Amino acid sequence: MDRRLNKSLVIAMVVVALVLGVLLGMTSGLVDRIFGGPNPKTIASASLESMRAQNRLIAFVARYVSVTTSETSRFGFSTKRTLILPGDVRYELDLARLQSADVTWDNSSKTLQVKLPEIEIAGPDVDLSAAQEYGEGGIVSALTNSDEQLDQANRARAVADLRKQAQGQVPMRLAREAARQAVQRSFAMPLTAAGFKDVKVVARFPTDGTDDPSYLDRSTPYEEAIRQAEQRRAAQGRK
Questions:
Q1: Which residues neighbour 29 within 8 Å (Cβ) at sequence distance 6 or greater?
Q2: What average pLDDT does the chain have?
Q3: How far is residue 39 from each of residues 33, 42, 110, measured CA to CA in Å?
């Protein structure tokens, strides 16, 4: 009899727990209202963790084209080679660098402020399949390996030139704005969904308002950029 009583008591406790769970789910809106509703700080913290889990954000990608010419002279003769080399550069944010201290909530103005890490420039991913190399030829080319040396010099200068173009004022401004809007959107959407219609999210870089270009150079060294390009071209040829 005691066993039957204990079994009945356990079943009754399970039923009560299920009923309470259902009631809690049905009245969660009421609970929020009683305790002041959703907390924007909590929502922002959840958004922060979600963004950190993404690791990196590619905010902007741009393609540049470099035109370089190298010349050499031997035996009283000269020869030159010209290279036209396109390449893609990525502008990234390391979201893992975002910390809780970088996200602050101003209740009086209903503003969430986010301090962004610096933009990082990655690449260039040079496109050897679209590269064009040409020169004058002549005696120097025929008697020496000058063409190979000039091509190598052109490639090194071209990769450096692509990086320099990527760090220009206009592309940096576009990349920063794209990153800013992406982060603001990521924080604003959960807040809006939770009912905070009048909340404003403001994302800023540490150097906003200064002449600092605000970027970290993660660009690929010349030898590595060419090696990666040759691997991509070989992979495309196998397809």
A1: none
A2: 80
A3: 11, 5, 12
Cα separations in angstroms, 100 against 43, 48, 54, 148, 230: 12, 8, 16, 53, 42
Domain boundaries, the chain: 1-37, 39-63+87-128+163-238
Kindly state the DSSP code that residue 88 receives in the 8-state scheme.
Answer: E
Give the tens place of pLDDT for each residue, 73-126.
666 667 788 999 999 999 999 999 999 999 999 999 999 999 999 999 998 999
pTM: 0.74
d(CA 57, CA 122): 12
Sheet-wide strand order for 103-106: 103-106, 111-115, 200-204
The H-assigned helical ranges of the chain are 2-26, 28-34, 40-54, 139-143, 146-166, 169-193, 222-238
| 3-state secondary structure (DSSP) of residue 36 | coil
Separation of alpha carbons 42 and 190, rounded Å: 11
CA 180 to chain centre: 11
Taking the chain, what is the end-to-end CA distance rounded to the nearest angstrom? 76
**Residue 138 has which token pair?**
């002549």
Cα gap 219→159, rounded to integer Å: 10
Note the helical H segments in 40-128: 40-54
pLDDT in tens, 145-200: 567 888 888 899 999 999 999 999 999 999 999 999 999 999 999 999 998 888 99
